[in-house]
Amino acid sequence: MTEVFSVEALMDAARDSTPEGRSRLFGLLGQLFLARGQSLGEGERRGFTELLEILKPFATVEARLELAYATANAPFAPSDLARLLAEDDIEIASLILFQSESLGASDLLALAEDPERATIIAARRALPMMVADALMRRGDPDLARVLLKNETIKLSIPAMADAIEMARDDLDLQQRIAKRPELMEEAGIEMSEWADPAVRAALVERFELAPEGDIAARLRNLLSLGIESGSPREPDFTGAMPVPGPAPEASGLPLPDPRFRLSPRLMVETLRRGERAMAEAMFAKMADLPIALVQRFVKESNGESIAVAARAIGMAREEFATIYLLWRKAQSQDGLVAAGALGGALDLFDTIPQDRVEVEIGHWRRSAQADATGTESAGTA
Predict the structure, then answer these.
(1) Average pLDDT of the chain to the nearest whole number
(2) Could you tell me if 366 and 375 are in contact, meaning their C-beta atoms sit under 8 angstroms apart?
(3) Largest CA distance in the chain
(4) 7 or 5, which is more confident
(5) Strand pairing partners for 260?
(6) Which of 71, 158, 159, 76 is CA-nearest to residue 122?
(7) CB-based contacts of 229: which residues, under 8 Å, 6+ apart?
């Protein structure tokens, strides 16, 4: 049981040079550090930490466990104390590693250098994404298993790509990946080509990937893309109104049928069919931008302009990721896209300030309108 702290008790323990006295002093000093550590300066915290390190070899397991339990459950425990206990024997350190809020990402990365501690950290609640990424990059199937089982964390797309690569000959990993909410449709489709039959069936059901022979299911998927009811298009239909700026017809590209409600889902299906030009026309229409500008954006290696335009039209993160991936695959000679490229584009999508999105899209639209007006004036002169 925790001893009631007092200055007299602390001094009595300090005068007792027996192992029992040193263990008692460790417990009392740890209590004081835990209670007052947040208000101490760096030098004072370092002094407490050094004293506790000196006393730790004399402290009983019970005394260290008691302090570790109190530290793990304290929302504002000093990080120095948390690190000290996280480096203790694993049965003591596990309390801190699993739940202490005082360990930052850099602390966790350093502690995870020890394989035994890495496994506990992988199961930690609300593990920072950068730590989960670093653990997944180790290529350890057992560590990946723990991360995939941890439902309190969000795995990045590169981390999921690493897990999928490890899962090719590991049924358990395949099953865990198929259940993760972060698994993107494009990755699920590729995984279904080689996964175990039971996992493939789960992926087909999750992403509504109709078998080749299932005509009814394929028709349902097609109708879900947003085809409006009504009479068929008349033969003399002239097409949708062109967006401001250079007309898409000038580049010889067909405009999207206006009976289709343009959506990211429809763009994805169009890109999968290899109709890149049509997808660019769709994106231009949705973003109200000239198609020539969108074609230039698509060729940018970092995806920044596409991310800005996607944010401007309210595209979801997963939709942007899939469309960006398909665009990059279409431009790649081997059909492959580095996980780092997609991760960088997603970082831009997540971090671009909304006020910048509004400024950029407004500037592009005004410039397109000005160019169109100038072209019309030159034509009538």
Answers:
(1) 81
(2) no
(3) 102
(4) 7
(5) 227
(6) 159
(7) none
CA–CA dist 306, 302 (Å, integer): 9
Q: What are phi and psi of 365, to 5 degrees?
A: -70, -40
Cα→Cα distances 83→17, 47, 102, 180, 346, Å = 26, 15, 9, 31, 32
Q: Is 284 in contact with 243 (CB distance < 8 Å)?
A: yes
How far is C-alpha 146 from the geometric centre of its chain's CA atoms?
17
Asked if the model's pLDDT at residue 322 lies above 90, the reply is no
The closest of 304, 314, 290 to 364, measured between CA atoms, is 290
Round to whole Å and give the CA distance between 313 and 299. Answer: 20
Cα radius of gyration rounded to whole Å, the chain: 29
Structure tokens at 142: 């057992």
Q: Which of 124-138, 139-153, 312-326 has the lowest mean pLDDT?
A: 312-326
Query: Cα separation of 199 and 186, whole Å?
Result: 15
What does the DSSP 8-state code read for residue 61?
H
Q: Are 139 and 164 in contact (CB under 8 A)?
A: no
The H or E element spanning position 223 is: helix 215-223
In this predicted structure, what is the pLDDT of residue 211? 54
One-letter amino acid of 114: D
CA 381 – CA 177 distance, rounded (Å): 63
8 A C-beta contact, residue 52 and residue 29: yes
CA distance 81 to 100: 11
Report in angstroms the alpha-carbon separations of 258 from 186, 241, 252, 285.
26, 9, 18, 11
Residue environment code for 134-152, b if the CB has 16+ CB neighbours within 10 A, otherwise e: bbbeeebeebbbbbbebee
Q: Which helix (H) or strand (E) holds 72?
A: helix 61-72
Q: Which pair of tokens denotes residue 219? A: 């028709």
Check: pTM over 0.85? Answer yes or no. no
Q: In this predicted structure, what is the pLDDT of residue 233?
A: 47
Phi/psi at 227 (nearest 5 deg)? -75, 125
* Tens digit of each residue's pLDDT (9 = 90 or more) over 20-68: 888 888 888 888 888 887 778 888 889 989 999 999 999 999 999 999 9
